[in-house]
Amino acid sequence: VQLVVSGGGLVQPGGSLGLSCVGSGFTISAYAMRWYRQAPGKALEWVARSGPDGNSGHYAESVRGRFTTSRDNAKNTVYLQMNSLKPEDTADYFCNVWIDRDYWGQGTQVTVSS
């Protein structure tokens, strides 16, 4: 099982950024996929969850209404679209799946700064 995350970078406050997480070694359509983040000096924070059918998304209160998670099961890929970004969204972002244990992507850095 492997998760490869891409799409991080530097963006100004109010801007948008999209992340991708490509899975291999398993089929994402059978599993819930989650996004987490960790800001410098802070604990890991759950951000969003995409249900296996791709039609149900759940979000942390801190990102609700600004972030959207989606998936393309044919591409074995889950996405996190982040809009109206704030400096407090600055963090390393990870995707995660629980199969027989937790599996994590390598993380991608998102910096929101002017």
Helix content: under 10%
Structural class: mainly beta
Question: Can you write the helix and strand succession as a string?
Answer: EEEEEEEEEEE
Q: What is Rg?
A: 13 Å
Model regions low in confidence, pLDDT < 50 over at least 5 residues:
none
Largest sheet: 7 strands, mixed
Number of helices: 0
Strands, total number: 11
**Proportion of beta-strand residues:** over 45%
Distance between the termini: 37 Å
Choose one word for the global shape. Answer: globular
Overall pLDDT level: 95
Overview of the molecule:
This protein has 114 residues and is mainly beta. The protein has strands at residues 2-6, 9-11, 17-24, 33-38, 44-50, 57-59, 67-72, 77-82, 91-98, 102-104, 108-112. The strands form two sheets. Strands 2, 4, 5, 6, 9, 10 and 11 form a seven-stranded mixed sheet that branches. A hairpin with a 5-residue loop joins β4 (33-38) and β5. The model has no long low-confidence stretch (mean pLDDT 95).
What distinguishing features does this structure have?
single chain, 114 residues, mainly beta, seven-stranded mixed β-sheet, four-stranded antiparallel β-sheet, 11 strands, 0% helix, 53% strand, globular
What's the helix and strand layout?
Layout: E1 2-6, E2 9-11, E3 17-24, E4 33-38, E5 44-50, E6 57-59, E7 67-72, E8 77-82, E9 91-98, E10 102-104, E11 108-112
Give a concise summary.
The protein has 114 residues and is mainly beta.
